[in-house]
Amino acid sequence: MAKQDKEDFTPVGAQFIAPSEEIMQLEVDRSQDPQREPGPINLHRYVGVPAYSGIATFMGVPVCLNQADLKAGKVDVAVLGAPVDIGSGARGAAYGPRYIRADERHIERMPELITNSATRVRPFEVLKVVDYGDAAASGG
Fold first, then answer.
1. Residue 99 has what DSSP assignment?
2. pLDDT > 90 in the chain, percent
3. What b/e string do you get for 110-123 counting C-beta neighbours within 10 Å, with b at 16 or more?
4. Could you tell me which of 11, 30, 47, 57 has the fewest CB atoms within 10 Å of its CB?
5. Neighbouring residues of 1: CB distance < 8 A, sequence distance ≥ 6
6. For the chain, which ranges sit under pLDDT 50?
7. Residues 59, 100: contact at Cβ < 8 Å?
8. Can you say whether residue 128 is alpha, beta or left, with left for phi > 0 and alpha for psi between -120 and 50 degrees?
9. 29 near 13, Cβ under 8 Å?
10. Residue 79: predicted pLDDT
11. Phi, psi (5° rounding) for residue 8?
């Protein structure tokens, strides 16, 4: 990036950052958050959760916010969305990861009951799967 004056930057806390995609890569300061043990976070309030309610995650699996959560949870698969829209036609592909999480209302939020018909394996019983959110992507 070319050298710029401070007037071209936006103040965020005590830091100055460029107004472009660099803000998307600036991590949230979590020093004031309540302390918790690292590991996947289950966002379900109740055992039986209808697919159309609650906070949307991929297949209703727990969420990891950082690498410490992934390591502590001994995660096998972390699903990461890539919200990028660089096409020249109809726009909106950047919403893809959000829509995939939200449109799973047709699938019960009990992924451990899903069986692969070809292998007869229940992948969510064999693998520890989490939703790792979306990548800090800029496109579109």
1. H
2. 29
3. ebeeeeeeeeeeee
4. 47
5. 18
6. 1-2, 4, 6, 17
7. no
8. beta
9. yes
10. 95
11. -85, -5
In our burial notation (b when 16+ CB lie closer than 10 A, e otherwise), range 56-87 reads bbbbbbbbbbeeebbeebebeebbebebbeee
What's the farthest any 2 CA atoms get from each other in the chain? 61
Q: What angle do CA 131, 48, 113 make, to 5 degrees?
A: 65
Q: Is 41 in contact with 69 (CB distance < 8 Å)?
A: yes
- Look at residue 80 in the predicted model and tell me its pLDDT: 95
Determine the Cα–Cα distance for residues 114 and 120; give it in Å rounded to an integer.
Answer: 10
Which residue bears the tokens 């609650």? 54
The per-residue pLDDT for 21 is: 60
DSSP-assigned letter for residue 21: G
Structure tokens of 45? 């309030």
Domain ranges of the chain: 37-134
End-to-end C-alpha distance for the chain, whole angstroms: 19
Quickly list DSSP for 52-96. TSS---GGG--B--SHHHHHHTT-SEEEEE------SSS--GGGH
